Amino acid sequence: MLHLRVISPADKTAALMRLLEDDPGATHITLARGVAVKPHGDLVQADVAREGANQLLARIRAMGIPETGGITIGPIDAVMSDAADRAVEDAPGDPSDAVVWEKLLSDTHEESSLNATFVAFLTIACLLAAIGVSTNSPVTVVGAMVVGPEFGPLAALSVGLMLRNWALVRRSVTALAVAFPIAMVVTLGATMAWEHFGWITTEGVIDAHNVDFIYQVGPFSLVVALLAGAAGMLSLVTAKSAALIGVFISVTTVPAAGYAVVAVTLGQWHRAFESVGQLAVNLLGIVVAGVAVLLLRPRVGEEEGLVGRFKRLIGMRTVLPR
């Protein structure tokens, strides 16, 4: 379930309360009149079943509350209530299929921001990847995968394409198009310094067969990118954040960028081009898979979605914990 918190202008509170009371997926409804200071108004709170949140939020938006008040939604870690169980059962659709689009938009918008922190993490990840390539260390390469923050803008790009939110698309593309070159230029400077000190040699990189997978593009490169992108998007829309770690370790976006830089400094142009190809394949695969997952999820006004309708057709029933 989700916790809904609304600052409502006094003249709209009665209509909002009727809306919540009539909604089968809303429960634990409370009202505190006149307690909101900025903006001024009444405080209305409720717990809402995920599968019914989209339509409820759309109706609240239609009342004009965001313009004069405010709406806040957040996850509930645990709830012990028969009323909450009934709300989940009465709400249309399946909780496992539910995507709260407003929350997803908010989360991905934040993750797609081009800022110093994002650039710093991506730069550190590329530096780790370059070290892993130069020392033939898969463990260091895996560390670079985990540190890399690039999945945030990629997920936001998928959401933007799905919802035709071109502002989010531009924001995500800008973050990737600016941060990757900056990270690679910094890594280029560091790599040239390491070569000057003799820490990196052409022979050492050529003989580093434990990390050949980074630049060797094959059919499984796209397959892995598609699977990782699908798993990553599912982890976002179902709040299974632990699965993202597996996604980070699966894809070779940052390692490919780091390998390309090292290969260029050593004059290994064929490996550099192959690494760039690996990077492009992984980026494209993640975005395509993310869009595909979102296409299967229910949208506002469509509680079941394609997966839910398939379950109904084959007679499957979701058993909810009591």
From TrEMBL:
<feature type="transmembrane region" description="Helical">
    <location>
        <begin position="244"/>
        <end position="267"/>
    </location>
</feature>
<keyword id="KW-1133">Transmembrane helix</keyword>
<feature type="transmembrane region" description="Helical">
    <location>
        <begin position="279"/>
        <end position="296"/>
    </location>
</feature>
<feature type="transmembrane region" description="Helical">
    <location>
        <begin position="113"/>
        <end position="133"/>
    </location>
</feature>
<dbReference type="InterPro" id="IPR005240">
    <property type="entry name" value="DUF389"/>
</dbReference>
<feature type="transmembrane region" description="Helical">
    <location>
        <begin position="139"/>
        <end position="163"/>
    </location>
</feature>
<feature type="transmembrane region" description="Helical">
    <location>
        <begin position="214"/>
        <end position="237"/>
    </location>
</feature>
<protein>
    <recommendedName>
        <fullName>DUF389 domain-containing protein</fullName>
    </recommendedName>
</protein>
<keyword id="KW-0472">Membrane</keyword>
<dbReference type="Pfam" id="PF04087">
    <property type="entry name" value="DUF389"/>
</dbReference>
<feature type="transmembrane region" description="Helical">
    <location>
        <begin position="175"/>
        <end position="194"/>
    </location>
</feature>
<keyword id="KW-0812">Transmembrane</keyword>
